[in-house]
Amino acid sequence: MTALAARPIEVQEVRRIAGLCEAHLRYAAGCKDAGQAGPQLIHQQLARDYSRAAFAIVRRIAKRSQA
User: Fold this and answer.
1) Cα 47 to chain center, whole Å?
2) In angstroms, rounded to a whole number, what is the distance separating the alpha carbons of residues 57 and 41?
3) Phi and psi (nearest 5°) for 60?
4) Nearest to 7 by CA among 61, 66, 63, 62
5) Where would a tag sit more exposed on the chain, N or C end, judged by fewer CB atoms within 10 A?
6) Contacts for 51 with CB less than 8 Å, ≥ 6 apart
7) How far apart are CA 42 and CA 48, in angstroms?
């Protein structure tokens, strides 16, 4: 296992974004249960965007750790 050189602010940001992603996934599930297709798609897209943002930060940390 490789240790990553993550700064505390980066860890905090990834955790914050992950929380937002999880929240929007829950909202999307609630919308699906309520039969609201439009809001469900919006929440799914927001969750996807937050997930990509979090992974971009992690990739940046991993790239820096390998150098």
Assistant:
1) 7
2) 25
3) -65, -40
4) 61
5) N
6) 21
7) 10
